[in-house]
Amino acid sequence: MPYDESVPPTRRRRSLLAATAFVAVCLTAAGCGAGDVVGGAQAEPRQGGSGTSAPPPSKSAPAPERASASPTPSAKPSKPSKSTGGGATGPLSGKTVVIDPGHNPNNHLHTREINRQVDIGTTRKECDTTGTSTNSGYAEAQFTLDVSHRLRTLLQKQGAKVVLTYDNDRAYGPCVDERARIGNEARADAVVSVHADGSAAGNRGFHVILPGPVRGGAADTSKIVEPSRDLGTRIAGLFVRATGSAPSNYVGGNTGLDVRKDLGGLNLSTAPKVFIECGNMRDPKDAALLTSAGWRQKAAQGIADGISSYLNG
């Protein structure tokens, strides 16, 4: 789920431009013909989900492939994960991409810390949330880290320098304002926050969340609204092609795009940034996709293709 809050925001009017842009990208990317649709409490967002926090993952939940050690017991904020890649030659040489895996598998053990209010420019929100899970207990935070690792590998092969906001290397968080700051300090050419939603059964599909025009306090999205829309539209179209998934049938008016002004991770970003809700973990059909390692690889490929398309112009 998108994060920044535990209460779903009110619905807003979808832009006709978003729908037009999505259709255009789908046509150039090989069409929006839908295969099976794919498949938040959020740490920063969701707009059509239930907004309830998820219980800790059960023992029966499928374990995602891991590439790093267990988080340290320290509750102190740690430095952002070491950047990797950028040394190889390729179409993305010289580009920096920040990947933001939504939530943290251990947030549920640190409720006091993640409930702390942080400044998102226009208001104050919770530091982070637990995220959602499938009915069988596969946590969103496990999903997002797995897809982020796959995405990192794909981008590195194209020569990109990749930075993760966290890599299973801290006890909780990071907070949404720190997630934005990591992308800013990396001078990222693109930032993508990876999520899965937690809406009602029957609500299916993916959607990409774009920043709306916001100015207040430390928040000023005036310079990133348009490039973020370009980034998000390309990701949406190429996610369709890679996964066979259809745009959300409950958020975004079937465009696969949604504009939000209430998310600190977007409001505080100075780099082009989007969120992607890859599917609904509470729908059995979407959950079957989200828990499949093969489908997660397709999801990572679709996101990587969208980022590459954006960075290569």
Describe the structure.
The protein has 313 residues and is of the alpha/beta class. The chain is built from 8 helices and 11 strands. It has helices at 16-29, 111-114, 140-157, 176-185, 225-243, 264-267, 284-290, 293-311; strands spanning 84-85, 96-101, 117-119, 124-126, 161-164, 190-197, 207-211, 215-216, 219-220, 257-260, 273-280. The strands form 3 sheets. It has a 7-stranded mixed β-sheet with strand order 1-5-2-6-11-7-10, sandwiched between helices. A hairpin with a 2-residue loop joins strand 8 and strand 9 (219-220). The longest helix has 19 residues, at 225-243. It is globular and about 40 Å long. Residues 3-25, 27-43 and 46-78 have low confidence and may be disordered.
First-last Cα distance: 29 Å
Shape: globular
Number of helical regions: 8
Strand order of the largest sheet: 1-5-2-6-11-7-10
List keywords for this structure.
disordered N terminus, alpha/beta, globular, 313 residues, two-stranded antiparallel ribbon
What is the element layout, followed by pairings?
Blueprint: H1 16-29, E1 84-85, E2 96-101, H2 111-114, E3 117-119, E4 124-126, H3 140-157, E5 161-164, H4 176-185, E6 190-197, E7 207-211, E8 215-216, E9 219-220, H5 225-243, E10 257-260, H6 264-267, E11 273-280, H7 284-290, H8 293-311
Parallel strand pairs: 2-5, 2-6, 6-11, 7-10
Antiparallel strand pairs: 1-5, 3-4, 7-11, 8-9
Helix pairs in contact: 1-5, 3-8, 5-8
